[in-house]
Amino acid sequence: MTLNAALDVTYTLPRVAWGEVNRVASVAERAGGKGVNAARVAASLGSAVLVTGFAGGATGGRIRADLDAAGLPHDFVPVRGESRRTMTVVDGTATVFNEPGPVVTGAEWSAFTGRFARLAADAEIVVLAGSLPPGVPPDALALLTRATGRPVVLDADGDALRRGVGGRPAVVKPNAEELRRATGEAAPLDGARRLLDAGCGAVVVSLGADGVLAVTPEGTWRAAPPAPVPGNPTGAGDAAVAAMARSLARGDAWPELLRHAVALSAAAVASPVAGDADLDLYARLLPQIRVQGDPCPS
Q1: Which domain holds residue 103?
Q2: Per the domain annotation, does 277 fall within a domain?
Q3: Which is deepest, 78, 92, 180, 241, by most CB within 10 Å?
Q4: Based on the structure, what is the number of domains in the chain?
Q5: Pairing relationship of beta strands 290-295 and 152-155 according to DSSP bridges
């Protein structure tokens, strides 16, 4: 689920000269948002997925059309407002500009919650990801998590993350900065423990090129790739979410889940556009991922 689905535009060029005219080497445009990206990666690995959220206006139509072209099933609730766009400028690093999204009315929110409950009833795993569009209740992610009756992977930021933990999701997946904003803790381990105490089942923190930190009732683990992968990191966290959802559906133990999450995340960095992953690189990296843990005694 991506409540604030977007049309993602990616500009790639050798170097950005801010304040000057720049000539873009390549342009990519596709449906995006965290949940859409995660669904796209999961589908590339053979998982059956369904994308939902809000879509409105001409931009919403382009989002639907792109998902149709990619063969990704979707069931969006229409809104009167215009769906948002995002702009990513890649020149060796990635700079992202995110629009706020359409204003959602009370009637539109009610229509979504009813449809979401029906869709979640047919799911094995539910991913709730991304920002909240204006007009949606601030505790929307907690409300939706409680309504699923299914394991939920939550990937959010700020107040949406803080409130979302109250729904008791199975896994929360912030990056280090999102975790700091949500908890006020500078150390990822301290922040993860605070979210765990707040009610979520487990916390997996993205640490960029350093891999992930997982804090769970079964123990604490760190997993890292053998070396940093150059490229566009914009969709790396979304790929990690896709890997975690697949592993939860299979019932993988934590070390195996983290191995897949780190390998697929690194493989996404090697792809120029968020929502893709280099699956050959994923296969090569998987046996090389280092997992170090401190499991709790049974």
Answers
A1: 1-15+25-34+50-125
A2: no
A3: 241
A4: 1
A5: unpaired
d(CA 37, CA 2): 9
The residue with tokens 């000057």 is 20
pLDDT tens-digit profile of 34-64? 999 999 999 999 999 999 999 999 999 999 9
The 8-class DSSP code of residue 170 comes to S
**Range 23-44 burial, b when 16+ CB lie within 10 A, else e:** eeeeebebbbbbbbbbbbbbbb
Q: Could you count the other beta carbons within 10 Å of the beta carbon of residue 235?
A: 30
* Integer Cα distance of 112 and 84 in angstroms: 18
Token pair of 266 as six digits:
């690194």
Determine, yes or no, domain membership for 68: yes
pLDDT digits (tens, 9 = 90+) for 62-83: 999 999 999 999 999 999 999 9
**How far, rounded to the nearest angstrom, does the alpha carbon of residue 181 sit from its chain's CA centroid?**
17
Q: How far apart are CA 209 and CA 193, in angstroms?
A: 22
CA distances 171 to 70, 196, 217, 266, Å, are 28, 9, 11, 20
* pLDDT of residue 296 exceeding 80: no
